[in-house]
Structure formats: structure tokens, C-alpha cells
Amino acid sequence: MSATRTATRTATKTAPAARRPNGMDTFVWQGTDKRGKVMKGEQPAKNANSLRAELRKQGITPRTVKVKGKPLMGGAGRRITPLDIAIFSRQLATMMKSGVPIVGAIEIIANGNKNPKMTTLLNTIRSDIESGSSLYEALSKHPVQFDELYRNLVKAGEGAGVLETVLDTIATYKENIEALKGKIKKAMFYPAAVVAVALIVSAILLVFVVPQFESVFKSFGADLPAFTKLVIAMSDFMVAYWWLVGAIVGGAIVAFIMAQKRSVAFSRFLDRTMLKLPVIGQILHNSAIARFSRTLAVTFKAGVPLVEALDIVAGATGNCVYEDAVRNIRDDVSVGYPVNMAMKQVNVFPHMVVQMTAIGEEAGALDTMLFKVAEFYEQEVNNAVDALSSLLEPMIMVFLGVVVGGMVVAMYLPIFKLGAVVG
To answer: Would you identify the family this protein belongs to, as annotated (predicted)?
Structure first.
């Protein structure tokens, strides 16, 4: 048994720094092995003496053993992302399939994780399981990291005795969903970033560059073109009231984010509006259908009852229009309607999706058919995002040319006019 595992299981006291959930301190050590090779590492232990003893048992002569200090900025590592949870699920499933007990598997994953927050979370879960809780009960104490869908799938897997299979399915599901989210973010972030850069460059030109040209133009004593006068007027306003413009833009961004988070009505309005946008709207439609299909397939395959699965799926679609539709489907299914008929009634799913669901129900392979639907619409999203990127590139070039190039032309128009008069 390694020093890490032995130390973790023998802790009884508590020390003040670098605290682990089970009462351990994390120590940084350096030493030499039997061949004189320098070795170093970090691991939890009861105290420095016990760690030295464990290292000697492993044939390592310790030179320095000290408590690991806290980060200078007081941080505890990056936040826990859905990808961290997906990787944990995959690792846990692999170890359990290999015959490693769940407590030992979680301990190994925790000790090898590079994110301190994830390590702390996993050690807490392991401690709860050692105290007699099921994995579902341990995860339920962390609803932020493990959502309702994740917890219900684990519960179903534990009940059916196929937890490792369910965890493997969850990992695949989360990886696919995160890849889909990444595609959507890419489609929306790229043009927004370019527009933001163009506006920042324009502001810099108006505040710092145009005033230099204005002083030159005054020495001409000639009447300036209307376009140049407009740009100079904009520059004068920006120079005088740049703080007001900055406050308005910053306030608008903060207000938008706060309204989206706190106002259900505004969030629903935004969801509906986004679905109506050209090109982007169709990508969001396909994304919602893909997420609905894959989430329902995963939950149904794991053995979650259909009505309960639909209730879980509603919140995973990512759009209020589809969330409301899925809740209506759930209500209809709960009183005896087939899923495909309930889907037809809400009038948001394409005919192909309804028909494939009907075929899956008739064949008793609803989850298999829904997986095929998810794969089809995920590929549609991929193709649409790639096409959108190709379409946006020339449009963005035109936008940059009009905004930035327009101001440059406005500044050189008087020079061209003066050159023509001299000529």
C-alpha cells in the first residue's frame, strides 16, 4: 500500500494548514531512493513524522518534509467544470469495471487530480461513502456539480446493479453535450468578438487619432466634407464624454446579464427571440432537439421510468420553448399517450423526429432510435456552425472595412480635396 493511501486511512487529528476533509494535512516532500535518485511529491499525512516513516518503508530517504502552503492569491484552484465531472465519471467506470472497489477508486482519482477543488469534492464524497452512504446519497449533497439528471442516473444504476455501465454512459453523454455546447458558443462568440474588437478600435481612433487630424485640418482654413465633419463631431463627443459612453455600455452589459439571470420573463423572451433569428435560430433548434433526444435516450436506457425521465429531460434542453414542450409531453404521457403522439401535439419537433420516435416505440427500442436522432442533429449542428463560419468571414471583413475603413477615408478626404485644388 502506498504512503498516500496509508496516510489517508490512518488520520485522527486535525492541523491548521492545507486541510483535507478527513483531517489530514498535505505535505510536500523531497528525498532520495536506494540508487541515490532525487524524488519529490506531495501527499496527505497525519503529521511529518508519519510521512517520513511511510517514505522509508518505500525505500525513500526523506530530506525535507513540510506542510504545503496556501496559494499566494488565496485561490483554491480553478472551478469544477462539466468536463471535470465527465472525466471523473469515465475514470470511476473504468476502475470499477477492473474490479477496484468504489472507495478505493475515488481515492485514487482524487489523489491524481490536478484541480484542488475537485480533489476536495472527491475526498468528501469518499468519506460519505465510507460512512455508509450510497454513491447517490453522497452525490446528492453536491447538487451544483452533480445535477438532477446525473444523480437520477446513478440512482438507477445502483438499483439495477450496473453502476459502472451507467457511469460510462454518463461520461459519453456529458462529453457529447459539452462538445455540442462548444459548437454553439463558437457560432455565437466569433461574430460577437469581432464586433467588439471593431468597436474598441473605432473608439481608439475617435479618441486618439481623429483629434490629431482635426488640428491639421484647422490649418487648411478650407471647408471640410460633410462625412469628415460627422466623424470629427463623433470624435469631439467621445473625447468629452468617453466616461459616459463607457458607463452606458458597461451598465447595459451588466443589466443584460442580471436580467437574464434574475428575470424569468426576460430569459424566456430571449430564448424565444433567439430561436427566430436567421441561421442562428436553426442551429439552436437543432441543438435543443439533439440534447432532448440524447438525454431522454440515456435516462430511458438507464432504467429511469419514462414520465420521470421526461421530467428530468425538460430542464436539459437549454431553451424554455422546448422545456415547456417536454413538460406538456410528460403530462400527456402520464395519462397514457404514446410519446410520438404527445410530441406531435406540442408542434415543435420536426416530422422526422416524431416518426423515428414512433418506430422506436413500436419496436421496443426507443432509446436506440433516440440515440440515432441525437447523432443526426448533432451532425446538423456541426455542419451548420462550419457553414456559418464560412459565411461570416466575408461579412465580417465587409463590416470591418465599413466601420474602420470609413473613418480612415473620412480623415483623408480633405487631403485628397486639397491635392485636387493644388493640382
So the answer is: Belongs to the GSP F family.
Q: Could you give the CA distance from residue 318 to residue 153 in angstroms, rounded to a whole number?
A: 19
With b for 16 or more beta-carbon neighbours within 10 A and e for fewer, the 119-147 pattern comes to bbbbbbbbbbbeeeebbbbbbbebeebbb
Q: Angle 366-422/351-363 helices, nearest 10 degrees? A: 160
Residue 19 predicted with pLDDT over 70? no
The phi, psi pair for 62, rounded to 5°, reads -70, 135
Give pTM, 2 decimals: 0.66
What does the alpha-carbon distance between residue 154 and residue 145 come to, in Å, rounded to a whole number? 14
Instruction: Identify the pLDDT of residue 77.
Output: 54
Q: With 70 as the cut, is the pLDDT of residue 395 above it? A: yes
Q: For residue 118, how many other CB atoms are within 10 A of its CB?
A: 22
Give the helix/strand (H/E) hosting 43.
strand 38-45
Output DSSP code: residue 105.
H
* 347-359 confidence digits (pLDDT tens): 899 999 999 999 9
In this predicted structure, what is the pLDDT of residue 251? 92
